[in-house]
Amino acid sequence: MNHFKLIIYILIATNTFFISAQNAINGSIKDTNNQPVAGANIMLNTVPNKFSTTDLAGNFTLPNIPDGSYTLTISHIGFKTINDQITVNSNSTDFNFTLNTDILNLHTVVVTGNFSPKTQLESSTSVTTLNATSIKQVYPQGTANLLQNIPGTFTDASAGEVFTRVYTRGVSAAAEDDMGWYYVSLQEDGLPVSLVQHSYYGPDLFHRVDLTTSIVEALRGGSASITAMNAPGGVYNFISKTTTEKLNGEIQLQNGVQGEGNPFHRADAVLGGGFGNNWFFNAGGHYRHNDGARNTDFTFSKGGQFKFDIKKENSRGYFKLYGKYLIDYTNRYNGVAATNWNNPKAAFGQNFNSTALLMPEFNAAIPDGRNLNNTNGFNPANGVHAKDLAFGFDLFQNLGNNWSVKNNMKFSTKNANWQTSISNAFVSISDPTVYYLVSNGNPFPVGQIVFNDANSGNEVARIDNSGIFSGNPSEYLTDGRLPNDAVMGTSTWYKDNDADEFMQQLTLRKEWDNHDLNFGFATGFSNTSVFTQGSFAFSTYENNPKMLQVTLENPGDPVVALSDAFGISNYGGLFFTNSRAKISQIATFANDRWKLSDKLNLDLGLRFESITHKGSNDRSAPFTQDGGLDGDETTAYDNNILAPTGQRDNFKYNYNYVSYSVGLNYKLTDDASLFGRLSQGNKAPELNYYFNNFANVPINKAGEIQNINQVEIGLKSAVKSFSFTSTLFWSELKNIGVSNFEFDDESSSIFYTPIQFNSSRTFGLEWETSYNPISYLTFRFNGILQDPKATNWNVYDAAGTVDISDDSTTDYSGNTLAYNPKLMFNVAAEFSKDKVSSFLKWKYTGKREGNIANAFQLDAYSVFDAGLGYKISKRISANLLVSNLFNSDGLANFFGANTFGANANGVTTEYINENPDASFIVVPILPRSALLQLNYKF
């Protein structure tokens, strides 16, 4: 019994000892300005699930830590990571640290382009990181607008939030029109936003940046060939906020003005924290109401998104459920008319800063070509209505014996419904095209044409077009005039796109001796469909177009309606596409990081990818019936509706290819490294190949796989006050399929020319530097100097008709590659001291060729952005952002001659010499915008 009591006493004493030996580690973290660092991550490496984050005062707590020695890791984007050996006992539980600035984030761990996390210095890739501070310095005008801050990345955000273009290192040729993300992958938390692309359907439709985004990692070329699905040009990965133990969040209210006083309103919020037993959550999103940077009579953009994740951690890793619901309306800007080929100036009373030249708001009902008993509502104010509902599961587990597994999978259902205008060209009232387009010449209206305001019903102009076939202009019969004696050559652009998608990536990792091996497989499946219908629309050609109801009123004859009450003509007669496809992408990969010595690491990667496209296109023909769809001879606008014939052209093609990438990283010092990489990647065709190029003809061959070869060598260095990266690169792109969008005046049909397969190469230097001479002042300078060439390039000339007997090709080999500036850079100065912060940025975009003929150049332009911030209290701050401070008139894009159905490649040196006074279409950059932000953190 006494022995039993003794054992009890010993157990009690031992238990008491262990209880008393539990300590709480407390500490604070500040920067070199002695300011608290909020949101820093603190982790005790050898104790499972022991981590914390600093609060707004920079303080943290790690409870229940036994006596002993530990490695404490402190990390935060923008600061150098600390790994400190600490001893914990009853006399030592308080620790204070100072984080040194890492102004280029070279000591920050990156995951994009690397199968296992590495610091930028250790990685043999070209990766740039934008942290939360950098993101908040950018006016919220869309994903591409934010990426303008990435060196070596060309972005065209002139159309607005969507319909943008992003590419790197001259790998651009198939991304110059309506598929602007062709070679790169837009990702959220490591998986693509969307698996497929085709005309007017790109990943930016389903992506918005808000407070739920923590950092952006941008990989240019290189290892994208082996780490991304069918995206060898680069990866732009938007990483969501991580979990925190304490409840915290942020609310941001924004109000601004754009252009000529158009309002902008937006609210963002994010909330996260732990709720016991190692469960954590994050949730947030935004809503906005935006009248647009240019003048329209409708709200340009409205809507938002909600995102969430719930995470459970255990001793071996975590499991995370996440999701997103996006519902959004936004539009996109077309071009503006200009004259003077050498020094473009806005024409016809238009303005590079304020003119939108979009159809006004109205509510029409147009017969659905798929089922003529139904109609499709059409309102240009809707723009593109994008919806994305996505759910995903992310799992990471340490399996023991240096094995680990990570699996990330996502399900989504997407819809993008376009109701907007395509083209806004000048069409003279003396041009037969405008009358032929009423119903493709069935019948051709000749005589007295009356134009009435579609809203008021009042007559605007009355003309006689009887003389146009003999070369005489149309004559006005009354005092009424149409602005610029023209109508706008435009079409209602109705597209309905659906996609149900599943994607996942499973990675197994094994570490031993000097090897870090990652291998696994990735899959993606998409079931998608697209319907496109276009009708001619009558509207005035002026700054703020008005819809025109048009009639033929010849004396003694019945009045013939050439348009409906809203101004819509040639119902469904310009475009018809009704297609569907199933896509499967299956890839297997392996990558070994081999430590050859303490300083030298070899990175070897291989990827096999198999992509299958299976689908069909409906053939179509004009619906023929006396009097058109309604059987009424006095309504000409419904005489030519394109409808399915019942015949389908099927396709099923498989694309298999192997890509590889080899990298070396040599550690010069703890703060400097030299790297090199050789990559060979591939790009399988996107669905536009089938949807665009085979109208009413069999799809008798597979598309070509484009080949991308890349070599790069770079130096990275981070010293006390100066950091830089510089990368020399060479890229080659082969088998580029190029087809032009054409209009046949005789048949009033729109078609794509036969594909020409071309090649290009680009040689250049990228750089990124930051200088921090004093703790509160930072200078940044990044950019690219490059020489982009079209090494082998032919353009098909259809001579303006579908008839191939007069067609030819023109060889432009050796010309400068279009739309790629030879010089592009960003310069910034940032100040932050006590409660005040500010920045000034200068973005320079050099001269670019407007087309492959090198006949027209887009001049260089500069844009200045500025910001001023004040910290009102520990929790509240205010910021003023101004984009395009001096309202620069830069031109971002060129669409060719100002005629209906024209394209950029139709403008040659000969054309310009023969038409020195002709007008043409350019797309200006967005005008000045100012925004006041109010932030509350808790």
Automatic annotation (TrEMBL):
Q: Does the keyword Membrane apply?
A: yes
Q: According to its UniProt record, where is this protein mainly located?
A: membrane
Q: Which domain of life is it from?
A: Bacteria
| Annotated keywords | Cell outer membrane, Ion transport, Iron, Iron transport, Membrane, Receptor, Signal, TonB box, Transmembrane, Transmembrane beta strand, Transport
* One Gene Ontology term of the molecular function aspect: siderophore uptake transmembrane transporter activity
- Subcellular location field: Cell outer membrane
Ranges of residues in domain TonB-dependent receptor plug = 120-235
Presence of the UniProt keyword Membrane in the record: yes
Q: How does it sit in the membrane?
A: Multi-pass membrane protein
Gene Ontology cellular-component annotations: cell outer membrane
Tell me the first and last residues of the signal peptide.
1-21
Outline the extent of the TonB-dependent receptor-like beta-barrel domain. 331-885
Record-stated family? Belongs to the TonB-dependent receptor family.
Q: Name the chain's protein.
A: TonB-dependent receptor
Naturally occurring in which organism (per UniProt): Algibacter amylolyticus
